[in-house]
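Recap quiz, item 2
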Amino acid sequence: MTTSTTLAAPPATKAKSAKAAKPPPWRRRLDVAARGVAAIFLGYLFAALTTAVLARVLPGPRAEASMAATLLSFAVYASVAVWAFADAKTWRVWLGLTAGSGLLAAILWLSLTLEPRL
Amino acid sequence: MNGSFRQSMAWLHTWTGLVFGWVLFAMFMTGTATYFRPEITRWMEPETGPPASYGATANAAVAHLSKVAPKAKSWSITLPDERQGVTRVSWQPERKPGEERPRRRGRGQNQATLDAATGEVVKARDTRGGEFFYRFHFQLHYMPVIFGRWMAGLCAMFMLVAIVSGVITHKRIFKDFFTFRPKKTAQRSWLDAHNLTAVLALPFHAMITYTGLVTLMGLYMPWGVQANYKSDQAYFAEVFPQSEEIPRSGVAAPLAPLPLILHKASDAWGGGRPWIVNVSNPGDATARVEVTRHSGDKLSYRGGSLTFDGVTGAMISESPKAGPVNVTGGAMYGLHMGRFADPVLRWFYFLASLAGCAMVATGLVLWTVKRRQQLPDPEKPYFGFRLVERLNIGTIAGVPAGMAAMLWANRLLPVEMAGRSAWEVNAVFVGWGGMILWATLRPTRKAWVETLSAAAFLVAALPFVSALTTQRNLARSLMTGDWAMLAFDLTLFALGGLLAFCAWKAARYTAPVKPKRRAAKLAEEPA
Amino acid sequence: MIHLATLLFAYAGFVAICLSMAKHQPEILGRKLTAKEHKQLRIGGPLGLGASYASAVVASGWKFGSVNWIGAVMLAALSLTLLLPYRPKWTAPAGAGAAFVGGMLLASAALLSIK
């Protein structure tokens, strides 16, 4: 993306301030949008599934496990959102979150079939 | 993203902070005010008296309810405490056969406000009081409640991410711990101020943001419960079991004296305070009295409740003890609400929360300060810059101005006016919106000075407005020893002074000596 | 009263920590610390914060005390940071004074409770 910034940057005076003042080119915007969608929506899906799976697998009474999983959920969501913007590769974020959610969904499904809800 | 981890975190911090910064500022401001919710309500209901202990009024509440709703399905009595001078009573009429579930309890017809000292009905002016700021800070306004709560939750999540990425971005968090250089360059000073308010109150900011999400976790993250229970009802039935509804027997029986029951409850809690009393089937042999413990008694917001036989006054059951994790959840809720705080700690809460407002405000200003020096043409900034700048001015000065406008409306609108409380609320947004409009019409520095001065005036003049229009004034509060209302007026002066100070700083701001020729343009910036 | 001791000890502790940082020594003292002084302050900082926490717990129990303490710590750090750029020379004597007054408050509270 750095290359496209320099490529698209017009005169030299503006190139200096391109980082903040100039609207970034479309590739960078697309990248930010992709990460934003991954962080907000896939991140929520992932956090929700983590919460559900944790609520199933944590030991102790069910009400306690549910509460523990829920209290942790926002930390999971925030961490995932931070990672979505920290990772160098956007595709890795998408792949990681999709695959992770798939795996969690499978565990949840298995857990629900083995032992139905109260 | 591109560049180092820290760079991408700096980017994330900048933009998560900006996108919802203005809403977050409003949420922080109204949330800060909410630490004094009972006091604000008292101020806005000047017809009500000073706080009282709970014991005195129980009989008066029962007498009133027996008169107006003897055959009610249930009564609810919220007792006064050391911060609130009224007893609020409400009742639910018996459901007629075939009638659907009763409507949600609200400030509807079936309620009354009683003076704690005399037990007489108080006709307070129609106002939402401190309740509005409380509601706004997590569900906003002019939109469906659930939508507003999701919006507030999204803002809180952005805030959480901004906190995490901000801590990562801040390279010298320990080295710069005590650093504030007000006389350095604008960007340096603003950054210091932002770091200062963020780092020193970081435990508070992190706590308040996370626990804020926890208070509405049932809405935001229901999946932990859904994974284990077929329905919310199944979950609540386990965690907060409710005694079954007993139909009226039709055998009349007098209610046991309520003060006696309250005394028993207080003893059972080792001196804890009763707060809400629910009487089901009053006047019947099957009457039950449920006494809920005051939310400020323990760190955990959920103090639990006791159920008594309404005729004999004997204790029947106790709400079950929650497990350690649920207690932790309750404590997180309690930490957010701060109801347990004694006056000293409540002021700490208030100050830390004000630091949070300052953190958001300085962060917003920093966005423009950083970019102003890089503007290709500082005379004509691009649209996005102008938008951010105007919204910053209009919001940082506008939210306090709007909140003050609500208090002005509370004093100036005719008491008998229809839709009075709704217009009080509209005044908030007229004030805020007016400031944004003002900010768009004036040059930057003038806009800062004028809006901040206007906000300072609106806040600091309130004690005078109150003294001219009602019985609530400084001298009377002092003579009657009403310290809370005295402190309220003095706090308004202090906050007005703070805003005036900001306006003064903005007015006398001179460009710092910068080696670059851009320095002259910096004069436009506020300080 | 012990609330105040909590705040004062926290302030004193932060002054010690601040003084043990090389960048703040010239502005507060006008000189660098000797190695021995530096060592003493390195101990004094945590000691002050520890005394602050202890007084908070004694006053309000470990649950409420911990919350009170965090509030006091934030306020103490804030007041030091705001005092520093405007009156740097006052910070150190104020720290010593705070420790002394805090100690007296705690001592008088202890004496009262024995009686």
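Residues 5-46+130-216+343-524 of chain B form one domain.
The two ends of chain B are 33 Å apart (CA to CA).
End of item.
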